[in-house]
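Notebook, bench 3.
Goal today: get a predicted structure for histidine kinase from Roseovarius pacificus so we can plan the truncation constructs. The sequence was checked against the plasmid map this morning, with no discrepancies at the termini. Length recorded as 464 residues. Pasting the sequence as submitted so the record is complete.
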Amino acid sequence: MRVLNSLSGRFLILTVVFVMLAEILIFVPSIARFREDFLMSRLERAQIASLALLASEDISPELQDELLHNAGVFNVVLRRDEARQLILSSPIPAPISATFDMRDATPFELIRDAMARLATPDPQVIRVIGEPVRMAGLLIEVTLDTADLRMAMIDYGLRILILSAVISGITALLLFLAVRRFLVKPIKRVVGHMQSYAAAPEDVRRVIKPSAGVTELREAEETLQLMQTQLTSALKQKDRLAQLGGAVAKVSHDLRNILTSAQLFTDRIEMSEDPAVKRMAPKLVNSITRAVHLCEATLAYGKAEEPGPILARVQLADVVSDVIDSERLSVGDGQVSFSEDIPASLTLRADAEQLYRVIANLVRNARQAIVNSGKPGEINIAARDTDDNWIIRITDTGPGLPEKARQHLFQPFQGGATKGGTGLGLTIAAELVRGHGGELALERSDEQGTAFVITLPRGGVEEV
């Protein structure tokens, strides 16, 4: 039963069924052809017997009976020169039940009469009309019993069925062996590779190596190889990310404690009477506060408990100003210039800390790209609002993103635009924007520079 439920077993059964069906379709016209040949043979025998009688006028009644018996008919009528003549005759045991004209019978009629004969078990007397061979007359007509005809048809049909069964068995067996050799065995090999790979997907040695000769199986193996390779890489990256996440969580924990202590020192710095210190102290306090919040968020993310954005009214110009001031300190030599086009009255609903991180990541990436290019450049931050969205556009005149970075945009550890970069900046920015219900998209990137667009929805939340 297990063999029959297999692919090769079912193929064996289907082969036997279809071969037998084909043999049955061949059997019907074959049995009709056999009946036609049988009746034509009786006509030829009857013609020979009648010609023997015509050749000799002195034939005894016993010889006539022997001729009719050898011909397998009761009587013979021959038409020659428009004259219809009863040549041989003997008593007919029953009335004639049907007449069959073999001269113009169609294939459909021959098949119909053959099937009717097989379906009629009782013997009957029939009349058969045909043309004499070798132009020995115009018409020959005989009467005969159908018992011998039906028995001969049954015997012929049984021989055909037996032969068909033997051919079906041999054909099915050969196809069964061929299917097992060329299809089932390669499929089992693929299944075996899949089971082996499932046991240890991190093991590169378990990735299938395509070797099938059948085109379709080869394509399946190549596709499976690609999937396994990608999955193995993804699992390794996931493992590295998990390890990195644990390390970052530990570092963030200790860093948060250090920054908390630094925050206490800044409180004392704010009491200084030095004008420069007074001017720089608030920015230092804000930077340390943001660093503390970032460490806390990192620890929460490591526990899969990162909170969503806390929406509040935010003056975008203030956030952008803080970002630009911080980046100007990083550049120092004036190679990168900053400009902004932010309406002073533009207020949007967002998480101020997360929005700062998004803009800072994008501006920092642009600044690093310009510095690495060795040419001066400009970074511009512009914003506008529509009826449905707030739109922030960050553009630079740098060299543009590399092809690899564009292909793996927003993917961690794959979309880095600078040598040694991790690509985490864009990933973090995109996730934070999605947390606001918005979208971060690359508008363009070519040799003229790069432009990112942040779209934040105005609706969907209650007014704060």
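The longest strand covers residues 377-385. The CA atoms of residues 204 and 232 lie 7 Å apart.
Flagging this for group meeting.
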